[in-house]
């Protein structure tokens, strides 16, 4: 009798455990929440996730593949490549379609710099596994057309290499929401596409905003201001930066009321803190073109301040926060 009771009890414990196991790992509480009210004239929130969870390997790891291509965006044909992050369970023969993010790295960095760091890769895996974000594809190009000499032509990169070479290659190879990779296909799927960038990559992200509102709804510029001819210039007047945004909106009038910018920056230890906050503050005050908040159905601008250093790896935290809005 005792054996039967013990067996029954063991079976009950196993059965009770099955639902818990099927649910998988649970999203942990955030490690820290930073709120500010007096930096840009609006209430901002930054959530720092639990590093011990998100930076460790996920039970559902995605994969990173390389795509090679040639570009004539700068005159002579050049060889280049992008890294592409594919979420766990991606099936090249399947039917599911995925949101896509193009991420541009910082100064002196390349296609491998962010996704090649295991903390960044693990963070993306874990965010998808526990439901912070729906499964997505993430692409890592490089805007240096001659990396050895650190040569950049941001206009050619934004208008030609990204639009004519990288996007058609990636989205004809992998299953995004673009059913075709011509202008019509990209326009029809723009709600499922985002550009992001850190530091000089933030500058590159702004240039995508200037040229590709027809192809993406979401933009995530992290830790920099807007620059003109002098790349990464810290002294361009805020008024000129705002005018560059307004000119871009005028030139892409069909999308003037259909975009969302999720900006973020470090704290006072971040060398871009002052210029970045000044730009966002001016944008918030410009209520003709911007509405601050996290409801993407009525707002088009939000800002998070981490209090951290100027490091591209911080982008994993900024993405974590941005996923409260982006693709929602």
Structure annotation, total helices = 9
CATH topology assignment: Rossmann fold
Count of individual beta strands? 12
Helix content: 25-40%
**Level-2 CATH architecture:** 3-Layer(aba) Sandwich
User: What is the spatial order of strands in the main beta sheet?
Assistant: 3-4-6-5-9-10-11-12
The residue ranges in which pLDDT falls below 50 over 5 or more consecutive positions are: 1-22
Strand content: 15-25%
The biggest sheet, with number of strands, parallel, antiparallel or mixed sense and barrel status, is: 8 strands, mixed
Radius of gyration over all CA atoms, rounded: 21 Å
Shape: globular
Distance between the termini: 56 Å
What is the structural class? alpha/beta
Considering the protein shown, what is the CATH homologous superfamily?
Alpha/Beta hydrolase fold, catalytic domain
CATH classification, class level: Alpha Beta
- How many separate domains? 1
Sequence of secondary-structure elements: HEEHEEEHEEEHHEHEHEHEH
Average pLDDT rating: 92
Question: What does this entry look like structurally?
Answer:
The protein is of the alpha/beta class. It has a single domain (26-322), classed as Alpha/Beta hydrolase fold, catalytic domain (Rossmann fold, 3-Layer(aba) Sandwich). Helices cover 34% and strands 20% of the residues. It contains nine helices and twelve strands. It has an eight-stranded mixed beta sheet with strand order 3-4-6-5-9-10-11-12, sandwiched between helices. A hairpin with a 7-residue loop joins β1 (32-36) and β2 (44-48). α4 (154-173) packs across α6 (200-211) and α7 packs across α8. It is globular, with a radius of gyration of 21 Å. The relative contact order is 0.13. Residues 1-22 have low confidence and may be disordered.
